[in-house]
Amino acid sequence: MYSSNPRSNLLFVVLILFSSSLLINSRKLDLKQPQQLDHGHTDDSLAYVWPLPWDYTFGNQTLTVDPNLSLVTQGNGGHSVIVSEAFDRYKKIIFEHCSSKLDGSGVDYHLTRLNVIVHSGNEELQLGVDESYTLMVAARDELSVIGGITIEANTVYGALHGLETLSQLCAFDYGTKTVKLFNAPWYIQDKPRFKYRGLLIDTSRHYLPIEIIKQVIESMSYAKLNVLHWHIIDEESFPLEVPTYPKLWKGSYTKWERYTTDDASEIVNFAKMRGINVMAEVDVPGHAESWGKGYPDVWPSPSCREPLDVSKNFTFDLISGILADMRKIFPFELFHLGGDEVHYDCWNSTPHVKQWLQDHNMTAKDAYQYFVLRAQEIAISLKWTPVNWEETFNTFASSLDPRTVVHNWLGSGVCPKAVAKGFRCVFSNQGVWYLDHLDVPWDSVYYAEPLEGITDASEQELVIGGEVCMWAETADASNFQQTIWPRAAAAAERLWSKKESASSANTTVLPRLEYFRCLLTRRGIQAAPVTNFYARRPPSGPGSCYSQ
Amino acid sequence: MYSSNPRSNLLFVVLILFSSSLLINSRKLDLKQPQQLDHGHTDDSLAYVWPLPWDYTFGNQTLTVDPNLSLVTQGNGGHSVIVSEAFDRYKKIIFEHCSSKLDGSGVDYHLTRLNVIVHSGNEELQLGVDESYTLMVAARDELSVIGGITIEANTVYGALHGLETLSQLCAFDYGTKTVKLFNAPWYIQDKPRFKYRGLLIDTSRHYLPIEIIKQVIESMSYAKLNVLHWHIIDEESFPLEVPTYPKLWKGSYTKWERYTTDDASEIVNFAKMRGINVMAEVDVPGHAESWGKGYPDVWPSPSCREPLDVSKNFTFDLISGILADMRKIFPFELFHLGGDEVHYDCWNSTPHVKQWLQDHNMTAKDAYQYFVLRAQEIAISLKWTPVNWEETFNTFASSLDPRTVVHNWLGSGVCPKAVAKGFRCVFSNQGVWYLDHLDVPWDSVYYAEPLEGITDASEQELVIGGEVCMWAETADASNFQQTIWPRAAAAAERLWSKKESASSANTTVLPRLEYFRCLLTRRGIQAAPVTNFYARRPPSGPGSCYSQ
């Protein structure tokens, strides 16, 4: 079954694997010659890995992979169920065509073992957790301990990324009916450029069933995204159970469009098993009309319902109760408090609120600040780091808690201002990273740069990453995945790979993205054609997945 | 946890279950009062079952279902892995919100056991297999053996339908955090109106990954569709492996957009486990250009490639080889030979073909008939019953093998003509049942009638059913499900339920279909909004799944 004799290459392998770091960068993707992906003449010299790893070298051997690939673990974290379950998932993906070939009798495969070394037994998943990994692939040889596949990482989350990359190096060869790993030996040292790589889902405008959210999380892991920003509730509906205030989910669209606390915990756990944090959002004081379905007292009046009534202590009791209940579900250190699009009309026009403002010598704008800061205090008292949409920073930056993470959305230029004042920032410029903007094609997403306008290294450090946002006015369970993919992948590479790798000079980007889109579809994800100008449009005619 | 005391209803239950058949039809859905499905005020007296069962009675009890529901099987077919695997699948569906509640300690559920009785041990899945089942649900009682859930069927395939219906009777109650079964006791006697209830998929215009095809099959089973018509190859691409002629899948779009024979067998088996037959199609002599990528000799000439060269024996050798190889994969008795849209230009303009026609004293039309009949002979020699698109019947009905199943598509009126001549017919009138026609809304699909224009009972018998067709010019992995659902469900009820149940007088249809669409999304299927006029359009704004 061998397509080449790897033993004769032993010395080469050893040299590659243990050569100086100068050598590590010596062989890269051939950026000059991407080939047309049509009719079987695909360029096997291209590594179709998405997002592109940080540093890597590769060779020209083709190795076969045993469908009975065994897992051998080492290190304090090696025996984690997070590793073993991921191994089982990726085995299904890598060997999807080999289900009836599992006996493997008589076949001598190059790669029969996967060694996973995880140094730390700490499985806490927090912002900045070490996601780096090293992946080495070489033909085994009895004269050497080097051969086989080895993933080495400090944490289980780095190991997960290593497994994903490994899965992308493998492909089923329809000719020999074996899984092959091309361009070995590989030596990959990888890590993310940004520690926060997010996707927003909005389950208020349209309820997303648990099964769909799990599909989204699963697909995020394929692109190495690591934060699911769950905009759970908004003015349209309140699907989440809050045990302390059990009437709140009366604000759900129907009695079936709800999440129990167990459902939410299950989603958090499902995401953690895939290295993804869930950041919940409670968007106050605007975007909260649905709260009043269960507790009308939080509306300034039945006819004027937003923002939440700033004059009542009950409003803040409710926020305290919601956040305390949610704290039991969401262990991630960041919690989003919204704070966007607050219009003061109801405060100024409702007599008792107007009176309260006068009594406290506040303008409505003062009350907005008062509200946001009081909500921040509640979150901070629960040991959460508050995240707020940029309007809070734009309106009263100097009063914000300095721990606040400023979430950009209105346009460019806010992160530079925020980090100049010492705040951390998340980039989501709506012109390029709001996926509900269907007229933003993949390359506009791809070439957006979170550090634009920030040159000082210490300020750059404060941009913790970015997030693509999928507001759900016209997105529901039926079209969510095809609206976010492949564009979310474009942002994922921007947030993971070296800035210079993800440059317009890199002509491998489009074929790799087309390949990744088809990889998603092979894994059952409804990723839309890459080259349509408008997102989620159907293919314009018959053709290969790899060129649409 | 009881919402009512079922023991006091024992006598009533016994009466319902064992009363005369007159009683069986005595309680039906209240067709007069469907209620608005908004904000939690859903009508619990409505049974949201799709497609509507044949005969049923129900009560007004609400019963709780044990998350540790156990399976007890009886009969020659009860121990089938088809039953036990389906039970596991449906348990996951029914108890999706109860994963952390599996201890069930201290809770006294009404329904703790599912009895499945399958009389026949014969698992052969063929056209006309007995798909009927009886489903009885009543509170258990120590004084009686009647209580619990019982599915009785002659075959495992009837039992599968019973499980699907059972799953639709259950719903998670977010208030009590238990699964409830409403409107018990239930007594359902169900069977399909038509034995052939198909969906066409087209993997030539766009390749559908195995994972996506499995999702389609899984979703078909929810609507009790039972034939996957797999239009595997066409002029655009040839993705299937044919061992006897290994160059044929050179006609695939890329080396990755292929199905091995093992892949195809796996799909057939996956479908069988869900009671679905796979009918393969080899569409000759038109729609076959891609064959020539590997074997250019089947083209009349390199510049004139369709229909296949009628003058060469090699063409028929190739068909024989393909069909013999496919026979090992596809056990279903029906095999589709296409025969549509044959244009004679290449035969009349290519010198050696023209000469052959003259030598054999044939017109091109004669040659079309000769080709189709010779292909039929090959299929029949392999013990297949040939299916052909209606052009073959329209052009040379009297020459067709009388076993031929005529597949209507061009419009209405063909099935009446075909059955009048003794042929069997499948209804797929493109004006209503071609799902690639995006301007056909759900109700046009729903009210199409396969027996239109056929009054004679023996002729009606010859219409074996119908099929919705999803031609894939603009449908790929990204939008397949949202293009077919919910419209395929509309056809599914037409093909399953009593004609009078599926009438425009039945005002439960729309709320039930909206409920079924949301049921699909809860199961992870990308079913599009029901009420959009154009198929696969996004929802027009925020709102509940149940009213879009």
From TrEMBL, chains A, B:
SUPFAM superfamilies: (Trans)glycosidases (SSF51445), beta-N-acetylhexosaminidase-like domain (SSF55545). Gene3D superfamilies: Chitobiase/beta-hexosaminidase domain 2-like, Glycosidases. This is Beta-hexosaminidase. It comes from the Eukaryota. GO terms for cellular component: membrane. Coiled coil: none annotated. Keywords: Glycoprotein, Glycosidase, Hydrolase, Signal. Transmembrane segments: none annotated. Residues 194-498 form the Glycoside hydrolase family 20 catalytic domain. CDD domains: GH20_HexA_HexB-like (cd06562).
